[in-house]
Amino acid sequence: MATPNGESILRKNAYAAALAKRQKQSAIACRMMLTILKAAHKNFHTKHLGAMFEEYLVGMTLSAEGAPMTIAEIARALNMPRSNAQRGADSLIRFGMCLKTGRTLVINPDYYAERADDDSIVAIQEAIFIAARELAKLDGSGPPGQRIALDRALAQLHSNVVALRALVKRAQ
Questions:
Q1: Does pLDDT of 139 surpass 70?
Q2: Which fold has domain 44-108?
Q3: Element holding 162 (H helix, E strand)
Q4: How far apart are CA 172 and CA 170, in angstroms?
Q5: Which residues, including other chains, have CB under 8 Å from residue 8's CB and lie 6 or more apart?
Q6: Distance, CA of 30 to CA of 39 (rounded, Å)
Q7: Out of 37-41, 46-50, 63-67, 128-132, which region has the weakest mean confidence (pLDDT)?
Q8: N or C: which end of the chain has fewer CB within 10 A?
Q9: DSSP class per residue in 127-145
Q10: Which run of H or E residues covers position 79?
């Protein structure tokens, strides 16, 4: 039979292990998000990354929705004041990422067409694959086949990046 003090030590050890795991998971997620934001920011030369957060949230909401949205709908989706959503949208319109049609905003199709050879999406995919692999290894509960599949996908992504960069170099 365990003593109350022994049970307390076991609980403290279990808590410390759970806390350490949560901190590692958080670090993995934060590295992924920073990589994604930096890759997405590559095309915005007007402001530094920290000054673009409203614009990113508005742009991500429009992209995720895939349909025209009003400022009120964007603000509601983000739980953000309407004035902040408007300011972010105005900046994206000036940059050419969004178009205003009446009271609604849409993603400018030319914005994506002009960036068709941009490899930032590859950096974003790579960040997601790496984070998934690191989280699966940390958890240890994922099936080995899943970890092998993630490693293969990451290796394929690396070879795709090399090929894409070679094509872009030749085109220049």
A1: yes
A2: Arc Repressor Mutant, subunit A (1.10.10)
A3: helix 144-171
A4: 5
A5: none
A6: 14
A7: 46-50
A8: N
A9: HHHHHHHHHHHHH--S-HH
A10: none
pLDDT tens-digit readout, 146-169: 666 767 776 777 676 666 666 656
pLDDT attached to residue 1? 44
* Domain ranges across the chain: 27-42+115-172, 44-108
Two tokens, residue 52: 């673009």
- The alpha helices in 51-119, defined as continuous H runs, are 53-65, 71-78, 82-95, 109-114
User: Model's pTM, two decimal places?
Assistant: 0.68
State the residue for tokens 């590559």: 42
* Residue 94 vs residue 41, higher pLDDT: 94
Q: How far apart are CA 158 and CA 18, in angstroms?
A: 33
Cα gap 122→19, rounded to integer Å: 32
Per-residue pLDDT at 47 exceeds 80 = no
Nearest to 91 by CA among 44, 126, 152, 128: 44
